[in-house]
Amino acid sequence: MAMQAAGTDRPATIHDIAVICGVAASTVSRALSTPDRVNIRTRARIEAAAAELNYTPNSQAKALSSGRTGAVGVLVPDITNPFYFDLIRGTQLQLKAAGYTQLLVDTEESDEVEASTVEQLRKSADGIIVAASRLSDEALLAAAAKIPMVTINRDVPGVPAVVIDTPSATSQALDHLISLGHTRIAYMAGPLTSQSSTLRWNALAAAAEDRGVDVRRLGPFAPKTQSGAAAADAAVHSGVTACIAFNDLIAIGMLQRLRERGIRVPEDMSVVGCDDIFGADFCNPPLTTMASPIEQAGRVAVSMLLAQLNPLAGGGSRSRSLMPTHLTVRGSTGAAPATL
Known about the structure:
Helix content: 40-55%
Number of helices: 12
Radius of gyration: 27 Å
Strand content: 15-25%
CATH architecture of the largest domain: 3-Layer(aba) Sandwich
Number of strands: 12
Distance between the termini: 91 Å
CATH class of the largest domain: Alpha Beta
Largest sheet: 6 strands, parallel
């Protein structure tokens, strides 16, 4: 029967083992974490005492001695956004398979919360995965110099990144709308700090100029369903016949508001979303949207991070991975309304 530590019910510590063996606690720590640094006889006594006391290493103490915590931080700007559901599942499954614990943090669309979280995780995580970072390029580079990092949907030279290629899908969406006769189209922009929103607009503006159609940017809008009402009103006021929204949440909110105003979708206004989140095909009408392999993006990000954490394990390392996207056409887009 295993002995209790010093006659108590508390778990045994390295200090209890040190008392039994007549050695310093630091010697016990070395014997259990780096056995080759301790005399074989001393190590055998320490291991026997540890077994007798049923000693279980403290994870924090182990982290201090090994420099590893066995945990990885995953930061997302809004945990209630369904886009991140599949992403989180992808990182969780891949981390679990590699023996790591996922520490999930909602950074609340705030660069300040994100910065403080990154600093805190330096002590409690081996590395971090940051989705849709709101930090500046300089802040991200500085953070990546202090802790192994992979970003998702944020491309900064010098920081390993998984990039979902939604800019190319915006061109697909534009061609789809042009084929339906639309020539006045709006892009409902996301947050000013969103690199993805800027890249999508740049790609869309370039494609529109090349095709000779009028595309204007409206917003910015918060990436939430509640923002859809303001976005819909802005679209109606601008006189466009079709909209490409920053994400599905804004697009779904637009559908609700347009219905309230008696504006038919797609007969009077066509709407395109982005992300193909859960529920996009349940809308009325079902939402045309840009789909991407979100769960796979999470898995790839973990693989890239593990390559940094275990460079001797082989498998190479990538500094950038581009995930393809495609347009999924549903009922929210249709022929442009006839003009008088």
